Amino acid sequence: MMTDLKIALMDLQCEMVAERSLANPDDITWLQYDILNRLDKSEKVLPSYLSVSLGVSRTKLSKSLKNLKALGLIEQSPSLTDGRELYTSITAHGVKLLASISDRHHLLHQTAFHALTVQEQKDFATLANKFSTALRKERIGRHE
């Protein structure tokens, strides 16, 4: 039997996936978004830094970087000291995509702002953060 909570969670997940699709016209993965977001806050960085800071294997990172490069969202240039290493940076197109996604996040915020009372906004933020933390802890616990 489905409870109201289960139905609400399923509906919210469906809506958030739909919103993500609208916010992500280039259909990049979550990891690719995280890479772009990290690059947007720094100058050129080495893949080894990205791998450690994002907690992903070099193989997985390399595949994502290859796809981002093919989409024109990042560029890579050889290190002056070690030609085998490639410095990675975000392109203007990548910055534009992040801005577009940020605009969509702003629309989500505005929808919540108008749909919920001030108290409901506070309650939702508290509950969403509590639930996100529980999901994260459960996921990390499964991989330890």
From TrEMBL:
Protein keywords: DNA-binding, Transcription, Transcription regulation
Gene3D superfamilies for the chain: Winged helix-like DNA-binding domain superfamily/Winged helix DNA-binding domain (1.10.10.10)
DNA-binding listed as a keyword: yes
Presence of keyword DNA-binding: yes
Pfam family, one: MarR_2
InterPro entries from the UniProt entry: HTH_MarR-typ (IPR000835), WH-like_DNA-bd_sf (IPR036388), WH_DNA-bd_sf (IPR036390)
Residues in HTH marR-type domain copies: 1-133
A single GO molecular function term of this UniProt record: DNA-binding transcription factor activity
Protein name: HTH marR-type domain-containing protein
Source species taxonomy: Bacteria, Bacillati, Bacillota, Bacilli, Lactobacillales
